[in-house]
Amino acid sequence: YIVCVNNMDAYVAGHLIYKTTRREDLCVWWEEDFKIIDQSGKASMPAGILKDKSSLYISAEYNGKACLFKLKKDKIKKDILCEKESWAGKILINNSKVYVLGGYQGKNELKPCFWKDNHLFEIPNAIDALDMTFDNDILYICGQYYCDNKIKPCYWENLQRKELPIDNNTGWAELIRIIDKKVYVVGRDGKDWVYWIDGIKHVFNGPSTVEYYLNGFFRNDGKSLITAISNNKPAYWINNKKFIVKPKNSFIYDIFVL
Q1: Of 142, 13, 32, which is closest to residue 70 (Cα–Cα)?
Q2: In this predicted structure, what is the pLDDT of residue 253?
Q3: What 3-state class would DSSP assign to 93?
């Protein structure tokens, strides 16, 4: 269901479903091996996966609560990140600290947040937080905030919000990367898929929200901006040039360049 790549090895996290009992175990596969992470049936499909030199991390919901699993050699550690109704997503490691993007249910609204070594930090004035990255120890998070009766895209630089321009009443930011000291954000302005480079908006050649979902974003060799957007007509873009993937009824989950 979700993949990460470390030293040319691919790690895939998902569910192992038993035919007779329909029990769903949280598992990870790599090379020709696999490991069952949780057999309780309470773990959701994984939302994040990351491999470093010594450990493998998987984020998921466990009985409706944000959870981080850590696999080191044959030992599995499970940390509940929040005792409230919550969810966990992307995982990053910076300066040996483990960051998990997610959110929890507040009194009257959803509260986007991240956990740093299991300590919760709220993201100010956020409706949603969808992606994060690091550059020179600066944490970047992208998502949406609410202003003047509009849902607007933005990103946070060390929790300081930076607005992204749109022409419609609704927009959001889904993926963020820092490339050659420039901030790249991919998202939507109304029905159009767009990307911003240091806050300047560019429209993709072709895709709209009616046709596509965006599932990947990758920068290769310092030259090519690569994105993957798909539905039953999967495609990806290199420097805004569209490439169709066959068969047409397939689905792109992510994109990597090795």
Answers
A1: 13
A2: 67
A3: strand
Place of tokens 């994109």: 255
Pull the structure tokens for residue 9.
């090895």
Distance CA 64, CA 171 (A): 28
Question: Collapsing DSSP states into helix, strand and coil, what is residue 193?
Answer: strand
Statement: the pTM of the whole predicted model exceeds 0.70? yes
* DSSP bridge partners of 104: 86, 111
Q: Which residue numbers in the chain have pLDDT < 70?
A: 1, 205-226, 228-232, 248-249, 251, 253, 256-258
Q: Which residues pair with 2 in a beta bridge?
A: 13
Sheet with 224-230, strands from edge to edge, namely 213-220, 224-230, 235-238, 241-244
| 207-249 tens-digit pLDDT | 454 455 566 666 655 556 667 666 667 777 777 777 887 776 6
The two three-digit tokens of residue 1, written as one number: 């269901």
Cα 5 versus chain centre, distance: 15
- End-to-end alpha carbon distance in the chain: 20
Residue 112 preceded by cis peptide, ω within 30:
no
CB atoms within 10 A of CB 245: 14
Helix, strand and coil content of the chain, in percent to the nearest 5, comes to 0, 65, 35
Alpha-carbon distance of 179 to 110, in angstroms, equals 31
Q: What is the full DSSP assignment across 19-83?
A: TTT--EEEEEEETTEEEEEE-SS-B-S--EEEE-SS-EEEEEEETTEEEEEEEETTEEEEEE--S
CA distance 194 to 55: 36
Name residues whose C-beta falls within 8 Å of residue 35's C-beta, 6 or more positions apart in sequence: 27, 28, 71
